């Protein structure tokens, strides 16, 4: 209840910034020490999420979007993972400096995570009621019976039909969409302030994808939660996100409010991504694809990591790492929230 | 579930008949004659031998003998008498089984506790020093024959350190049974430890473990509930089938420590061509095997809800 009271004076969802953001990631670096060398998975990521806001993190496999989320959640395998520097401020406090016990208390209660594959992410030998109820038993000290009642309530809330009859079923007895709903119910159980959804709809078929995303968006509005939506599906993003961060080789290459990015991308990589979406009006034509492969994280190219695949690459791109420039209109007027890590952002957006 | 159990129980009947018949025929095929052996080196009077054979029913056709024997067991719980001493086999079994049950349950407890503890310890540290130590230790246990291990134990703990008596004098005394139980448990313990280790190490990387951590559960709960429930499934299967092996397979260990249990009695009755005793013992062991395997299959369904019997 206190959570709702506190959030009452926060601006309504989808309107933007509060005074201190709910979550602020500052210059986060994550590397993995493997036998073949050091894989730099995340190289200086910055982003903020406010209450009620949805940040979509976009990128190919290996771009570091999931690793960033795991670092926030504190579920990175360390070792081999390592966070050499960076800060993750949650409600103003750096989580990387907290004790393990402090972080454990935040996990699940204040920050919750929804995983991609609900079948393997749920424990196969425990009933869904038990797994849901566990949240209440561990964090709120409820009895088994009370926890089960709460579990049924949560299952109702994520619109699982006949929740009371199904509470003692096992994960494999549910369909894919229903399983993902259980994951969502588990994440929402303690009404956390931030939810990280790591490709929540990738394993689902398209009709179910839309249902699950709608559900997630509804519940987010209801609880006024911050949401980090990690995905590589640009279609999913458009409907629910407020702002977008595009990641490439462990860096954010472009940030923008959601609708602007579709209209005017300011980074060649984003442009490439948008052009590679199949479109009905271009049926029969060859689908655009970004040439080449994502970089090997053990040997990230010098300069801009995207330069070997970029059509606009010049000499400067091979030597200098572009910072995240502020993107402005042609006449120099501000475009709030927009940034591009490209030496030639002006040519890309206005060209 | 009920139908499954009923079907399994019915399936036991042909298995039971088949195994006992096989044993019966094998004993019959053994060289040597138990009746002639009664007379030792002296030449026996052929009419006396024939009379004894007739009294024991040994002059009947083999299948008739089997039929009489089985009806005796099933209808009257009568396993017949020993040929040499004339003692009822039921008494021999009644003496041997309690000893073996004590030894086997002690060995089973050691195997269960030490094996799983070692396995969990190693599995949680897969690839580290502790893991290698456990792997080397269990490899040693697997590769050293039981009688070598038994003699080493006797030499070190009984003769040099004097902690235990070298032979078991009182087989109701658990402290005397401890050393043979450890020797008996050693091999299975190694298998249990390795099986647990692999299972733990594998499940540790499972997605649901990551979920459990992300839910903010305490480490104790993540391991005790989420990891153990999943990792114990293969181990329980092995432990179940091992009960049967421990009950019947202690011939060497029992001989080494002078314990008069099932293993020793089987060995003796093979030497003396005591067909009735041998078949009686094996019949009981077959039943033990059949019931433990049923129990394991049922337990399997309890542990893993994805398996359901109809």
Automatic annotation (TrEMBL), chain A:
Q: Superkingdom, according to UniProt?
A: Bacteria
Q: Which Gene3D superfamilies match?
A: P-loop containing nucleotide triphosphate hydrolases (3.40.50.300)
Q: What is its main location?
A: membrane
Q: Does the keyword Membrane apply?
A: yes
Q: Fetch the InterPro entries from UniProt.
A: AAA+_ATPase (IPR003593), ABC_Ni/Peptide_Import (IPR050388), ABC_transporter-like_ATP-bd (IPR003439), ABC_transporter-like_CS (IPR017871), Oligopep_ABC_C (IPR013563), P-loop_NTPase (IPR027417)
Molecular function as annotated in GO:
ATP binding; ATP hydrolysis activity
Domain named ABC transporter: residues: 23-274
The record gives the membrane topology as:
Peripheral membrane protein
What keywords are annotated for this sequence in UniProt? Answer: ATP-binding, Cell membrane, Membrane, Nucleotide-binding, Transport
Q: Name one GO biological process term.
A: peptide transport
What are the boundaries of the signal sequence?
none
Q: Name one GO cellular component term.
A: plasma membrane
Q: Which family does it belong to?
A: Belongs to the ABC transporter superfamily.
Name of the featured protein:
Peptide/nickel transport system ATP-binding protein/oligopeptide transport system ATP-binding protein
From TrEMBL, chain B:
GO terms for biological process, alphabetical:
transmembrane transport
Q: Key word Membrane present in the record?
A: yes
Which membrane topology term applies here? Multi-pass membrane protein
GO cellular component terms, semicolon-separated: plasma membrane
Task: Write down the InterPro entries for this protein, in alphabetical order.
Answer: BPD_transp_1_N, MetI-like, MetI-like_sf
Q: Where is the ABC transmembrane type-1 domain?
A: 97-300
- Please give the chief subcellular localization of this protein: membrane
Q: Where are the transmembrane segments?
A: 12-30, 99-121, 133-157, 177-195, 235-257, 277-303
Report the locations given in the UniProt record.
Cell membrane
Entry annotated with the keyword Transmembrane helix? yes
Keywords on record: Cell membrane, Membrane, Transmembrane, Transmembrane helix, Transport
* Family indicated by similarity: Belongs to the binding-protein-dependent transport system permease family.
Matching entries from PANTHER family are given as: DIPEPTIDE TRANSPORT SYSTEM PERMEASE PROTEIN DPPB-RELATED, DIPEPTIDE-TRANSPORT INTEGRAL MEMBRANE PROTEIN ABC TRANSPORTER DPPB-RELATED
Q: Which protein, by its recorded name, is this? A: Oligopeptide transport system permease protein
Q: Which organism is it from?
A: Actinacidiphila glaucinigra
């Amino acid at each position: 209840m206190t959570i709702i009271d506190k959030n009452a004076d926060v601006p309504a969802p989808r309107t933007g910034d509060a005074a201190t953001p709910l979550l602020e990631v500052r210059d986060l670096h994550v590397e993995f020490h493997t036998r073949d060398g050091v894989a730099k998975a995340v190289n200086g990521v910055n982003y903020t999420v406010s209450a009620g806001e949805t940040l979509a993190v976009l990128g190919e496999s290996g771009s570091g979007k999931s690793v960033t989320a795991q670092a926030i959640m504190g579920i990175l395998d360390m070792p081999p993972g390592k966070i050499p520097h960076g800060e993750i401020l949650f409600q103003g406090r750096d989580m990387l400096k907290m004790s393990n016990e402090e972080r454990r208390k935040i996990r699940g209660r204040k920050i919750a995570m929804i995983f991609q594959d609900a079948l393997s992410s749920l424990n196969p030998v425990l009933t869904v009621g038990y797994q849901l109820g566990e949240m209440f038993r561990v964090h709120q000290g409820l009895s088994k019976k009370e926890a089960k009642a709460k579990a049924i309530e949560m299952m109702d809330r994520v619109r699982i039909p006949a929740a009371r009859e199904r509470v003692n079923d096992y994960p494999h007895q549910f369909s894919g969409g229903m399983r993902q709903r259980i994951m969502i119910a588990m994440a929402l159980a303690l009404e956390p302030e931030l939810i990280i959804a790591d490709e929540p709809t990738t394993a689902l078929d398209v009709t179910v994808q839309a249902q699950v995303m709608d559900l997630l968006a509804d519940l987010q509005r209801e609880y006024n939660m911050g949401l980090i939506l990690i995905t590589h599906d640009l279609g999913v993003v458009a409907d629910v996100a407020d702002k977008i961060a595009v990641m490439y080789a462990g860096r954010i290459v472009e940030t923008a409010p959601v609708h602007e990015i579709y209209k005017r991308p300011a980074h060649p990589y984003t442009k490439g991504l948008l052009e590679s979406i199949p479109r009905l009006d271009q049926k029969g034509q060859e689908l655009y694809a970004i040439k080449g492969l994502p970089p090997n994280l053990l040997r990230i190219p010098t300069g801009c990591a995207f330069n070997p695949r970029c059509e606009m690459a010049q000499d400067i791109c091979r030597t200098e790492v572009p910072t995240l420039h502020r993107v402005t209109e042609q006449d120099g007027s501000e475009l709030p929230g927009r940034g591009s890590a490209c030496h030639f952002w002006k040519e890309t957006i206005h060209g | 579930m009920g139908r499954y159990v009923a079907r399994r129980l019915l399936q036991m009947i042909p298995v039971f008949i088949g195994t006992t018949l096989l044993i019966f025929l094998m004993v019959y095929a053994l060289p040597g004659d138990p009746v002639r052996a009664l007379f030792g080196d002296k030449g026996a009077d052929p009419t006396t031998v024939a009379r004894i054979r007739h009294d024991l029913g040994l002059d009947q056709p083999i299948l008739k003998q089997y039929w009489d024997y089985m009806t005796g067991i099933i209808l009257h719980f009568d396993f017949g008498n020993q040929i040499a001493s004339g003692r009822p086999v039921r008494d021999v079994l009644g003496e041997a089984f309690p000893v073996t049950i004590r030894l086997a349950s002690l060995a089973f407890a050691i195997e269960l506790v030490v094996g799983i503890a070692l396995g969990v310890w190693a599995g949680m540290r897969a690839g580290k020093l502790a893991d290698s130590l456990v792997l080397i230790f269990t490899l040693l246990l697997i590769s050293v024959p039981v009688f070598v291990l038994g003699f080493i134990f006797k030499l070190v703990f009984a003769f040099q350190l004097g902690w235990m008596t070298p032979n078991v004098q009182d087989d109701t005394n658990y402290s005397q049974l401890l050393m043979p139980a450890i020797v008996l448990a050693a091999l299975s313990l190694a298998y249990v430890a390795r099986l647990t280790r692999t299972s733990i190490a594998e499940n540790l990387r499972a997605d649901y473990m990551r979920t459990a951590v992300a839910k903010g559960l305490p480490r104790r709960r993540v391991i005790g509930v989420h990891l153990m429930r999943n990792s114990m499934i293969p181990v329980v299967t092995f432990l179940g089938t091992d009960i049967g092996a421990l009950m019947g397979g202690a011939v060497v260990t029992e001989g080494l420590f002078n314990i008069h249990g099932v293993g020793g009695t089987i060995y003796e009755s093979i030497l003396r061509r005591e067909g009735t005793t041998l078949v009686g013992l094996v019949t009981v062991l077959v039943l033990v095997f059949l019931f433990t395997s049923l129990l394991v299959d049922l337990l399997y369904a309890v542990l893993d809800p994805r398996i359901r019997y109809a």
